[in-house]
Write a structure and sequence with these properties.
The protein is of the alpha+beta class. Helix content is 38%, strand content 11%. A hairpin with a 3-residue loop joins strand 1 (10-11) and strand 2 (15-16).
Length: 124
């Protein structure tokens, strides 16, 4: 029985057999502005043209809000390649993005950082 198509491009020892830049057609810059904490969600709109299996895999992860970092981890691709795939999906209207919510506190506030450190030590 032949292997499923998705398994043809994976090797247990070597990992993904297709180089990441081939997944993004050699592109290294997304057309949309993302960072690792940008929230991504499917719009329910299907792409008008075929984008490829990697795009479909990324899109399938976007049913609920998910960060760019989480998506990259799930598809096991570098973040920059994932951003290129996501920007293609944004360009065709299949996903929407939202900047991460900003906390009211200053992220460099020493008191806040000490409280987080104290909480982490307490759990250990």
């Amino acid at each position: 029985m032949p292997e499923p198509e998705e398994n043809l491009w994976l090797d247990d020892a070597a990992g993904r057999l297709v180089r990441p830049y081939t997944v993004s057609n050699g592109r290294t810059r997304p057309t949309a502005d993302f960072n690792l904490l940008t929230m991504v969600r499917s719009t329910g709109t299907k792409p008008q043209s075929y984008l490829g299996p990697d795009h479909a895999q990324v899109l399938s992860l976007c049913d609920g809000p998910m960060t760019v970092a989480e998506i990259a981890a799930h598809v096991r691709l570098p973040a920059v390649v994932t951003k290129v795939l996501l920007s293609d999906l944004v360009d065709c209207g299949a996903v929407t993005t939202r900047a991460p919510m900003q906390m009211g506190a200053d992220p460099t506030d020493r008191g806040l950082l000490e409280a987080v450190l104290h909480g982490l030590r307490k759990r250990l």
